[in-house]
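assembly run, all chains below
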Amino acid sequence: MTATKILTRNFERADSHTLAAYRETGGYAAWQKAETLEPAAITEEVKQSNLRGLGGAGFPTGTKWSFIPKHHAGPVYLVINADEGEPGTFKDRYLLERDPHALIEGMLIAARAIRSATGFVYIRGEYIEPWRRFSAAVKEAYDAGYLGRGFDVVVHRGAGAYICGEETGLISSLEGKKGWPKLKPPFPAIKGAFGAPTIVNNVETICCVPHILTRGAAWFAALGTKTQGGTRMYSVSGRVRRPGVYEASVAITLRALIDDLAGGVTGNGRLKAVVPGGSSAAILRADEIDVTMDVDGLRNAGTMAGSAGVIVMDETVSIPEALMVVARFYAHESCGQCTPCRESTGWIYKMVRRIVEGRGRKDDLDTILDVARRGAGTTICAFYDGAVGPYVSYIEKFRAEFEALIPK
Amino acid sequence: MTAPTVAFSEAQLAEVRRLQGLYPDGRAALLPALHLAQETFGHISLEVEEYVARLFDLTPAHVHEVVTFYTLFFREPKGRHVVAVCHNLSCHLAGAPEIVAHVRRRLGVDVGETTDDGRVTLQSVECLCACEHAPMMQVDDRYELDLTPEKVDRILEGLR
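ok done. output:
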C-alpha cells in the first residue's frame, strides 16, 4: 500500500500556505459549491462520506453536526480544536503551517451546515509559527471576502495545558477559565461555548470537508473501510528510519505504515512494540501489527486509532522506562478536578518510577493494575481512561520485563 | 489595596478592549490579555493579576486560578530566553535525557532554574508535537529540531 495524497497534496510547494497557491490548486471551489447547497444537504453529504473525527475520539462528523438543535434561534459556534498535544502527534502542525486555507474553507462549509456565524480556532500556546501562519491566512481570507460576509473567524491562543485538547476543557479555556472539562450531558452541541450550541472539530477533520464536497461522499467513503471513509495523516516517530507525517487510507495496516512508508525499524532493527494512536492508546506487541488503522480496526485489536500518532520501539527499548515517561506525562497533565485521576496518576507514576529505579516492591504491579482499573470510567472526561490504556497494556504485555527490575 | 504600579499603555488598553470585543463574553479574552501582560511585564506577579482582574471585572482569585493552571505563564521573573526541552516519549527514545543533562551542564542550572546572569531559564516539558524531529526543544518562539550536543551548543551560544 502506498501513500494517497489528498490533505497533504500541496505540502511540497514552498508557498502552499498562501491564498494564491491554494486557489491555483482548486481552493475555495468547494465553498462555492457549498454556498448553493442547503445546510442539511451538506451535513447529509458528510454523513454519507463516513468521515470520522481525526482528533482522537473517532466520532462520525456528520452525525455530530446533526445534533445541533434544528430550530435554535440564538448563536451557534464552530470551534476548531488545534490544541494538538497528544504525545506522538504532529499532523495538525503541518496543516496549520502548510495548508491553512484548507482549514478556513472547511470551516466555511461546516459553519453553513450548522448555521454558525462565528468560528473559534483554539491553537496551543506553544505553536507560535502555526499561529502566525494561520493568522496570516485568516487575514488573506478576510481581504479576499471569504470571511466577514456572514462568517467570522477568531484565532485564540492557548497557554499550555494538555487537557484543553479535551473538547469541554477546551471550551472552558476558550471562555477564559482554567481548562476544566465539563460533565456531559449536556453535550456541547446542545450547550457548549458561552452556553450556546457548539460543534468542536479537529483541524484535520475539517480539512477533509472541502474534498468531500468537491469529489463526493461516495469517492471519500471508498478510500477507507466500510465504517470509516477517507485517508488520514499518520504521525510516525520513534525508532523508524524515516519519521514524519504520512497520508494514507485509514485501511492501511500498521505494518505497511512502519515498513513501507516510514522505512522500517531502526535501533537493532527488530520491532518490540508500537503505540498506534498517540500515548493514550494501548500498546501493541510486534506480533499484533497486522491490523488496519481505522477506528474500528484498532478498537477490535484492543487499542485505539486516537490521533494516529504512531510511536515505534525496537527491542532495545525498555518498556518500563517508556511507561515511566508516559506516566510522568499523565501525572503532570491531570487537571486535578476528579479525585481518581488526580490521585492515581501521581501514585502510579511514583510506583513505575521506583520500579525502574530498582526500588520496586513485590506487589507494585498488581497495585498499579488495581488502582488503574478502579478509576477507569469514573471521571468527568476521557483523560484518565486514556492513561489507563498505557498503564494496563504496558504491564500486561511486558510483565516479565517489569518483574525483572523488582528486587526479589 | 495599593495603587497599581503596573499598567498597560493606552494602545495596549485599546488592544485589550478589541480582544474583549471578539467574544460573546469579553471575559473570554483573559488568556490573550495575560499573554499580552506577560510580554509587557516579563512575568505575571500577583500585582499584575490584580491589575488584569480589574480590567476584566473578575476577582483576583479567578485570575490567579487561571494563571496557575497553564504552564506558559510565569509567576516569577524568567530569563531573557526560555529553553524548553521536550522529555516525552518520542524525544526520550531519541536521547532527550542526554540533551537535558547537556543543557544543564552547559548552563550550570537545574531544570526550572534561571542562570545567574538572567540570560536563560531552563525547562523540561511535555510533548511539543514535533516528534518527527526528536530530540527537540523550544527556544522562545522557535522550535529547534534534530538536536545533538553540538547543535545545542551553537544554539545556546546564540542566546544573549
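The first strand of chain B starts at residue 81 and ends at 86.

The beta strands of chain B are 81-86, 120-125, 137-139, 142-144.

not gonna interpret more than that til we talk
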